[in-house]
Amino acid sequence: MAKSGEILSKLTEQGYRITPQRMMILDAVEKAEDHISAEEILTLVCLQYPNVNISTVYRTLELLKQLELVTETDFGDGRVRYHSIKKGHHHHLVCQKCGGIIDMEESVFNPLKDTLLKQYGFIADIQHLAIFGTCKKCR
User: Fold this and answer.
1) Longest C-alpha distance within the chain, in Å?
2) Element (H, E) at 38
3) Is residue 35 classed as helix, strand or coil in its secondary structure?
């Protein structure tokens, strides 16, 4: 998993400037205990740098996603959330009744990935996934 120094190196190697805004956005994603939305990032960044706007946050997140430094997940509530790749891959079961989210390990999908490869010659890129349904509590 990449460390902050490695992330900064990757950005500069690709020709991107290390601006204070990018640093604060990356820092907000890395320090988040859970997945974080662009709006939540903007709120945190504006505490230190009030001139940042939401489009800067979205552009930076898109860049970090393209460089495979963050993942993006839609939990079905109208807001996409971001997660540092440093925190590893995992997936989510999202209850459509109570909104509860259960984290699950990537290894659960290994049989599916194997089947897709064997039967279809398809290499699945399953990095960060949300599956919607009904949790045990709501059934």
Assistant:
1) 53
2) helix 38-48
3) coil
Specify the pTM.
0.71
State pLDDT tens for residues 71-98.
888 887 888 889 888 777 678 898 999 9
The answer to whether 36 touches 28, Cβ cutoff 8 Å, is: yes
- Locate the domains of the chain by residue range: 4-86, 90-138
In order of 69, 81, 122, the CA distances from 131 in angstroms are 22, 15, 21
Query: pLDDT (tens digit, 9 = 90+) per residue, 51-70?
Result: 899 999 999 999 999 888 88
Q: Which CATH number fits domain 4-86: 2.40.30.10, 1.10.10.10, 2.60.120.10, 1.10.443.10?
A: 1.10.10.10
Euclidean distance between CA atoms 20 and 26, whole angstroms: 10
Tokens, residue 12: 């500069």
